[in-house]
Amino acid sequence: VKMYIVACALALVVLISPAADALDNGLALTPTMGWLHWERFLCNTDCDSDPDNCISERLYMQMADVMAKEGWREAGYEYVCIDDCWPSHQRDARGRLQADPKRFPGGIKKLADYVHSKGLKLGIYADVGKSTCAGYPGSLGYYETDAQTFADWDVDLLKFDGCNMDWTLVGEGYVNMSKALNKTGRSILYSCEWPLYEWHFKKPNYTAIREACNHWRNFDDVFDSWSSVKSILDWTAFHQDMIVPAAGPGGWNDPDMLVIGNFGLSHAQQESQMALWAIMAAPLLVSNDLRDICPRSKELLQNRRIIDISQDALGRQGYRTAKVDTFEVWERPLSKNRLAIAVINMLELGGSRRFFIQAIPGWKICEPQCNVTQILPQYQEMGVQTPRSKIHLSVNPSGTALLTITPIRDFTGSHKVQWEDTSVRRKHTIL
Ligand code: GLA
């Protein structure tokens, strides 16, 4: 009996504690939200002929202006993030990184002050190896100098890339930069690409990664296309047994940027990306031109109900639970025993297709009753349902139906549960 109790207690500890300790910097308790320049603006340094789209202080100031003015900050988007191609090709006389003087005449500290004055935070980019992916100076040999420089500039987030590094040293490099950031005493959210650069050679150690990073990229860079978004979903589902348990408050799997509001995705596909990034508890870092975005994409990115799923306090990552016909079902456990459910129609042919709601594996939480809210493709309270409800969802090609389900428990204290089966208009009692 004693052994049994010990075993039960152990099982409980395992169940309620996260897979591993998170990086203990108090940041990213829910997935990071913000804007990141890379997918949309790449390494455009030609400010003479393309001043509006080149990587310059103006770009981040203008994004910060729009984020503060047009509801982005209120919706939760907080970090304005610089990616590759910001620095000068040379370090300064004291070995410090410096911003390109022509494109960042005010320097990064001034830019951080500006972004902070808008109630937002600034992110910057560096690389664990000899040089960045685009050939700018890397941090190898300079981890403490660079961490201190970023802290002196009042930077709030570091995206640390993994190009141009011996793969056997990648892990050590990421851990050392994590320690260097911690040593500065400034709260700097640490966004890693550690597993992505290890996967070609070995299985990454997610326990170690979670102890060092606030989020981590696992897979290829996102492109502005549905095939790219789909490949990320496929990779994630295929590896979910290994990566989902690693996610939780303080540390998240990062499937890369949201490309909503650009050129490549249909509206249904944009809804799918938004829904699935919320289900995956992914950082919501948009890469688009906030100064010029279509109202429907803006509304989708600012959809409070989807953001609530993303930012749910339970902090558990969702996963694929079924493939039915041409559909995929993904589910994410939420706080208060609720469940978020995404049903994607993968058939890129024809019109909308019907999906029988009882085919959702998690639908069983509707015993004896549940309350159902549809969030996508449009908001609709679907009311009280039961395990026997005969509803169909209607899902467009490459679109997603997104729902939340709230179980309604029997609070009478007895084990007798009653529900009304509206489809046959009869009362059932189970004992
Ligand atoms: C890598 C990263 C991208 C981006 C570029 C910049 O490809 O995965 O997210 O930062 O480098 O060069």
From TrEMBL:
Subcellular location(s) per record: Lysosome
Keyword Protein transport: no
Name used for this protein in its record: Alpha-galactosidase
Residue stretches making up the Alpha galactosidase A C-terminal domain: 315-399
A biological process from GO: podocyte development
Family: Belongs to the glycosyl hydrolase 27 family.
Catalysed transformations (reactions): a globoside Gb3Cer + H2O = a beta-D-galactosyl-(1->4)-beta-D-glucosyl-(1<->1)-ceramide + D-galactose; a globoside Gb3Cer (d18:1(4E)) + H2O = a beta-D-Gal-(1->4)-beta-D-Glc-(1<->1)-Cer(d18:1(4E)) + D-galactose; Hydrolysis of terminal, non-reducing alpha-D-galactose residues in alpha-D-galactosides, including galactose oligosaccharides, galactomannans and galactolipids
Function: Catalyzes the hydrolysis of glycosphingolipids and participates in their degradation in the lysosome.
Listed GO CC annotations: extracellular region; lysosome; membrane
Listed CDD domains: GH27
GO molecular-function term, one example from the UniProt record: alpha-galactosidase activity
Key words of the record: Disulfide bond, Glycoprotein, Glycosidase, Hydrolase, Lipid metabolism, Lysosome, Signal
Classification lineage: Eukaryota, Metazoa, Chordata, Craniata, Vertebrata
InterPro entries in the record: Aldolase_TIM, GH, Glyco_hydro_27, Glyco_hydro_27/36_CS, Glyco_hydro_b, Melibiase/NAGA_C
Subunit-structure text: Homodimer.
Coiled coil regions in record: none
